[in-house]
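Quick one: C-alpha cells for this chain, please?
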Amino acid sequence: MTFRPHMGKAALRTLAEFPEELTSEIYAVTFRIDSVDQDPRFPYLAIGYNTETEVARVLAEESGSEPWEARWNYAYFPPSGLEGVRIIGHDPVHDPVGADLHRREAVAQGLWYEDEDGLSEQEQDERGEQLAEQFHELCVDLARRLHTDGGLVSAIGRPLPVILYDMFDPDEMFALTRAANPPELVTEFLSEDPEGQRQD
C-alpha cells in the first residue's frame, strides 16, 4: 500500500470512531494540518469534529465571542476539534505505518533528507516546501473523496463540511477548505474569507 490509500483508509476508520451519540450534534469535520516538531518532513493530519452544543457553550461562557468565531475559529475548539480524534500521517508515534510509507515515498521522489546529509538551508527549505505542498494536496483530495465516495454520509448520516486548518499558515484555511468541499457546504465558513467567495 502507498501513502495516499493508507491515509484514505485511516480517515474512514477515524470517522467511524466519532461517538455515535454525537452524530446529530456534529456540524463540521475538522482537518488540522501540522507536523511533528514543526518539521515539514513529518506532516500529519489530526481529524476531529465540533458540535452545536460546544458552540452554544462558547457563546454562553466566552464574553464577547462572535458567532462565526465560536463556530469556525479553531482557537475556540475543544480537543475533539483541535487535537482531533486521531492523528494520521508521518507521525511515528501515532501512525507508524503512515510514517514509514511517507518516508519511503519522499525518498523515492528525492525529497527526503537527513540532518547530516549536508544540504544547505535553502535546499532543505525547498524540499520541505515541496513536501508540505504535496501533503496539502493530499488532504484536500482526501476531503473531496470523503464527499464523493460517500464516506462522510455513511459515517455521520448527512453531508457536512470538512474544514482544513494549516497550523503554519492560518490564512490558508479558506483556500484549502474551498478546494475541499462542495460550495453549498462552506458558504457560512467562507463568509469571513478576506478574499471573498471567489472561485479559483
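The mean pLDDT is 95.
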